[in-house]
Amino acid sequence: SCILRLASSHLLSKTITPPLLTSPTYSLATQGTDGTTGMNILTYASPASITPDGNRVWTLGLYKGTVAYENFQRTGTGVLQLLTPRHAKLVRLLGGSSGRDVDKRLECERLGFPWMRMSMSPSEHNEANNNANRGPEVLPECCCYLRLTLVGDLVECGSHDVAVCKVEEMLVPDGETYDGVHLDTAMLRDMGIITAQGRVAD
Predict the structure, then answer these.
(1) d(CA 190, CA 195)
(2) Would you place residue 178 in the very low, low, confident or very high pLDDT band (cuts 50, 70, 90)?
(3) Most exposed: 71, 102, 126, 143, by fewest CB within 10 Å?
C-alpha cells in the first residue's frame, strides 16, 4: 500500500472508504408532465452562495433514473424541503421506493402527512389555471421550503448529476421559526432506517 509519511509519528494510508458524514435530510418535490407531484429523499444538497442580494445558489446531487431526476431535468424547477425528525417515518417510503410503483401521496397521507399545495400570491393564483402550472405539492410541517430553478445545464457526475440552482424563494410554516432541529443522516442511522452507506436499510 501507499504510505505517506507526514512526520516521525504520523502516517497516512490510502483508502477507498469515504468518511462517514452527517448531512441534513431533505425531500425534493418535483412535477410531472401530467401535473402530479414526485417526491423523494435527497441528502446531496448544499448552499454554494448565500449572499442576501437575491443571488442565493444551492447545488443538488440528483440520482439518475428516478422520477425526481426526470421531472427536474425536464422542468428545471423543484421545491427542496428540509425535514424534521417527525418526518423520519417517511424516509423508507420516499427514499426506498419509486413513484412508478407506489402511490407516495396516498401512503404519506396514511402515515399522517397529507401533501398540500404551497400558498400562492394573488397574481400567481390568477396565472394558475390547472395543476400543471401550480407547482408541486409539498409535505406539511417542514423546517423550511426552498423554491429552486436550474441555472445552466446539469453536470454529469456518474451515478448522479449535479444541478446548480438559484433560490427563488424561501418559505417557512406560518407562525413558526426554524429552531435548528432538522432530520439528519446520523439520526436515520441510529434509527436503523439507513445504512452507513446512506442507503435505505432492508
Answers:
(1) 9
(2) low
(3) 126
